[in-house]
Design goal:
119 residues; alpha+beta; single chain; 6 strands; five-stranded mixed barrel; OB fold (Dihydrolipoamide Acetyltransferase, E2P); 54% strand
Length: 119
Amino acid sequence: MYNHTTIIGRLTRDPELRFTQSGKAVCSATIASNKKYGEDKEKVLFLDLTIWEKRGESFSKHFKKGDPVLVEGSLENQEWTDKEGNKRTKILLTVQNWEFLPSTKKEESKAADNSDMKF
């Protein structure tokens, strides 16, 4: 069975780029994806992202907190024991591809309003 997921959402923080001891680039970020149900109810999924090498370097240069993005990749379950001895788990998306998404109309009109400013 093939593990492949596509998610659209917004970044909850600026991407963080770091390098392994062997020099491989790895970018970490978190995406929030909303699901509306009922008239006024909403659930939010927060998903940690890992993007390796050139894709990760490029992702960290082009995105910032709040940006909309489409990401594709495979899900991985991570397990560890915290300092208090509790078993912890989280789901991580290892991103193979990502795409820019257009900003909302509100953001576009705000940018247009600022374009006439003279300094």
